[in-house]
Write a structure and sequence with these properties.
heterodimer, A: mainly alpha, 9 helices, 0% strand, B: mainly alpha, globular
């Protein structure tokens, strides 16, 4: 637990000192969303129909792109090898890293999402579901994406490859996340869909960090 | 007793050299059997099986479509199992298999999608629909591509195989989840008519050629995997004495 706290503190501090990594995903999210009314049409009823999908796809891409460099700096500076050879299970620092990353890049997306949902003409009643679905979904996206980031950490051209590896794995979360928002916009009860999203989150939290640390071990040649 | 034999097989086939000689003995008779079985199944199904009372002759594409789909699914499951063995026990042959299984499976997934689309147009009136089974097969194709792409960019073959193995394991879990999550969307695809247990809802005159072509395609898949694995083994062991001896003797 001490190791976890120390690792969490370190990761938060490192991220905090490179504000671009926190701000860029957020701006990406906002910008991608503002492209859609310009590209499709600003008609309110049309926007409201596509809004759940647009919000979720944009959030998904923002999370994925923020993960590309997740382990790269640690690998270049040798910190990664230290973590893998440290006398704690690698899962502990990995979990701390994922939590720190989500707190500073995933959580801001969740917080700004109701504003963007409103701009996309979603009914006010659905905005709570937007936040709640992203709150349950983005951590799962972070963890699953980190598996891909761990496997591609040593490669120079990680970006596109990461997308090819990770996007198919994002599909269940996307289906239920966007599904929940659509259902809420239609006035339906969304407890069931949110529960499934929570179940997916529980699955990824319990198994994902193990896969991430296994991936890091493979990538570092251990 | 059975357990002992299985264990011995596992260790023997885990040796690249033993695998090479073993596959040299298996391939000469497995290849013709596979080709003949598939040819018999296809000819029987395409030319002699009765036509469907509703769909006429267009249904005959199932003799390609169903074997290809089942082969693609089984191939990915095999990738997942090889991945588990490669990551956990670091067995060399499992790493070789990860490279050997993926390309044929990806091809089968593509064939399944194309034949399904061609059949869907006259029957459902559309080439494509985002229905549970079709979407799952598309995602399966994407995940095959991921496994192949990851192996292509990592230079060290052992590391590449283990990375792909981990991805395949995660992918197997994903296939299952995707399958059930897209069933939320209204399903257009008919349910399975071939049942492992209980009465199949397909006419026997169509069932037997279908089973025969499925068996034939699976055998052909096995032949392809063996051939690819042999090439990979040769490449990986190119510095060993036995491979050099084989090359000098011109033995294939």
């Amino acid at each position: 637990m001490n190791a976890f706290r120390a690792a969490l503190g370190r990761e938060l501090l490192v991220l905090w000192r490179s504000p671009a990594e926190i701000i860029n995903p957020l701006f990406f999210f906002v910008m991608v969303i503002s492209l859609f009314p310009l590209a499709i049409s600003p008609k309110p009823e049309l926007l409201a129909t596509v809004a759940p999908g647009v919000l979720w796809v944009a959030a998904l891409l923002a999370v994925m792109l923020s993960l590309d460099g997740l382990f790269r700096r640690d690998q270049e500076s040798g910190v990664l090898d230290m973590l893998l050879t440290a006398p704690v299970m690698p899962v502990v620092p990995v979990l701390a890293k994922l939590l720190a990353h989500w707190l500073l890049t995933g959580l801001p997306l969740v917080l700004i999402s109701p504003l963007l949902g409103h701009m996309l003409q979603l009914p006010d009643a659905a905005l709570g579901t937007v936040m709640l679905s992203l709150l349950l979904g983005t951590p799962a996206l972070t963890i699953v994406g980190a598996i891909g980031a761990a496997l591609t950490v040593g490669l120079n051209r990680g970006g596109i490859l990461l997308a090819v590896l990770v996007l198919p794995l994002y599909i269940p979360v996307l289906i239920f996340g966007a599904g929940a928002v659509s259902a809420a916009a239609g006035g339906a009860n969304v407890d069931g869909i949110l529960a499934i999203l929570g179940a997916l989150l529980a699955l990824t939290i319990s198994l994902g960090p193990l896969a991430v640390s296994a991936g890091l071990k493979i990538s570092s040649g251990n | 007793m059975v357990w002992q034999t299985l264990k011995r097989w596992y260790h023997m086939l885990g040796s690249p050299r033993y695998f090479y000689t073993f596959s040299s003995r298996v391939l000469p008779w497995l290849t013709p059997i596979a080709v003949l079985t598939l040819a018999a199944g296809l000819v029987w199904g395409l030319a002699f099986a009765p036509s469907d009372y509703q769909q006429g002759n267009s249904y005959r594409i199932i003799f390609i479509h169903v074997p290809a789909s089942s082969g693609a699914l089984m191939g990915y499951m095999a990738l997942g199992v090889s991945g588990l063995v490669a990551v956990v026990w670091r067995m060399k042959m499992a790493e070789v298999m990860l490279k050997a299984i993926a390309p044929f499976g990806a091809g089968l997934a593509a064939i399944s999608l194309v034949t399904g689309a061609l059949w869907g147009k006259p029957t459902w009136g559309t080439y494509w629909q985002w229905d549970a089974r079709m979407t799952s097969m598309l995602i399966l194709l994407f995940m095959y591509v991921g496994v192949i792409a990851l192996q292509a960019v990592i230079r060290d073959p052992r590391q590449a195989a283990r990375a792909a193995g981990l991805l395949a394991m995660v992918g197997v879990i994903n296939v299952v989840i995707v399958k059930y999550s897209v069933e939320w969307v209204q399903t257009l695809h008919q349910g399975s008519t071939l049942k492992m247990f209980g009465e199949s809802t397909i006419d026997p005159a169509m069932k037997y050629p279908l089973l025969l072509s499925m068996l034939g395609l699976w055998l052909l898949y096995a032949v392809n995997v063996l051939l690819r694995a042999r090439t990979e083994v040769m490449w990986r062991e190119r510095r060993s004495k036995w491979v050099n001896k084989l090359v000098k003797e011109g033995d294939r």
